[in-house]
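Batch 3, record 17
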Amino acid sequence: MAGERQDHREIRDAVAKLCAGFPGEYWRALDERRAYPTEFVEALTEGGWLAALVPEDYGGAGLPLSAAAAILEEIQRQGCNGAACHAQMYVMGTILRHGSEAQKQAYLPDIASGALRLQAFGVTEPSSGTDTTALRTTARREGDRYLVNGQKIWTSRAEHSDLMLLLARTTPRDQVAKKTDGLSTFIVDMRKVLGKGLTIRPIRTMMNHNSCEVFFEDMEVPAANLVGEEGKGFRYILSGMNAERILIAAECIGDAKWFIEKATGYAKERVVFGRPIGQNQGIQFPIAKAYASMRAAELMVQEALRLYEAGENPGAEANMAKMLAADASFEAANACIQTHGGFGFAEEYDVERKFRETRLYQVAPISTNLILSYLAEHVLGLPRSY
Amino acid sequence: MKVLVAVKRVIDAYVKVRVKSDGSGVETQNVKMSMNPFCEIAVEEAVRLKEAGVATEIVAVSCGPQQSQETIRTALAMGADRGILVQSDEALEPLAIAKILKAVVDKEQPELVLLGKQAVDNDFGQTGQMLSALLGWSQATYASKIQKADGELTVTREIDGGLETIKVKLPAIVTADLRLNEPRYASLPNIMKAKKKPIDTMSPADLGVDAAPRLSVVKVTEPPARQAGVKVGSVAELVDKLKNEAKVI
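Prediction for the assembled complex:
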């Protein structure tokens, strides 16, 4: 595609080759059974792709965030779905930045090799979505362990993860000076507590994403699994949000490129009234518009990556990148399904599947309204709206 | 056993090739380039020989422009140990490449040279055979299986109508056919390691080779566009058309 990003070319090429082994039929068959792409995730794990961000000292490749972005963008661009495992790349960042050396030694090498899967992130609850500090799950210390009670929802991949990073309240909200205090982050070894205080229940959704509800009933977590200091967990979780947003934005750029290529290809070859439909401005303009939106969003992703890698705080850029890229991918999805007409709704064209999948990023991991609120309040200095 | 593998940078096999408007060749500007698929198979075989303890060192050689370094890096990421780029911006013909490879073989003294049976750009399919003649080494072309015994290789070749198994004495030239193996994907750690592996760069002149072209391309054209077919109404009509129009039955 014209104007293609050239950074990490060899990484993109190698990922594209791997993805070629997982064509549309593979994903369609999984979709039908709502099954997890185990073979795809294994191939990515074996190739070391999910360990891109783990430092070399702990067995990973120690690459900058832009390399991880290139990997995830390419996966989406090839029509695959990295959502099944993207969290394995970045959830470990919280342990890396705030965990003890003992925790890093205990977990990171196995996360890098794929022997341990850390891709469940227990934050959101039924009664507190974006209002994270209102969460009701509690962890009460008893001797050398914590007892966790409560519930999480929209915990993606919980059934396909060994560990979960969990945010729970350790001091009641009315006993802390700031509501962001009193929350703590834990590493939960779900293999040890499943059926013993931990229940996982998958939720059927419009796409094959393995979203789950997770219930805790006196679930025991060793005190040694507390990350950093008790009561400071909210900050630890926030510190990983920029990386997550930038990576998801990169995935959306990959989706947008897939839709634009698919739409362009079809518009060139589908002949109606004696000429290719792509000759009609009614068909080509929405695709061209989607391309322009994608390129603009891609520049914001690059800017966010540049700031992140320079060690600056890219809070606004990461949020804007995610919003613009999600909008661009959905605009491209819409142009693509419209270009295909009735065929866009037929499963064998993969357009409807990707359409459903990319729609998610208007909502997750943060909804567009919250990004706008953030920009209004923190960048423009307008009064807080909520 | 030291193994030399030749790798060529070509237009990616999945790219639709376009002929230049002046008919002098095909468009390569802004076109995705990759390692020739048959070269990939040759590299894979070399890596498997090393993993089996048969090969001790793998040297990947490419002849072409500066960017051929990327092709060598791909080979290094697959498992080759080091690379040699014989840099030339001129189009190199099979004989020139064979002469360059001979000079590299004289320097490196490998026991086995693995090549693809042909490159998918020009489809010459000559380099391996020419190299064998220049070196006076045995050759086994279109290999679909390679086994090493004492001082010789047993190679299964794909020929018209079946398979032929031959024995060749080492040192030897082997060219890889499609079914020799399925090349691996480079893993991320190996791509990272490949960046640190050495690549020597030299020119044909450094090797004392005259790489001047001996062929001239007269014209390059697009293949004729496929003509529309016809729908027949019945088997009888089909048979009639095959008999009287196509005259094939």
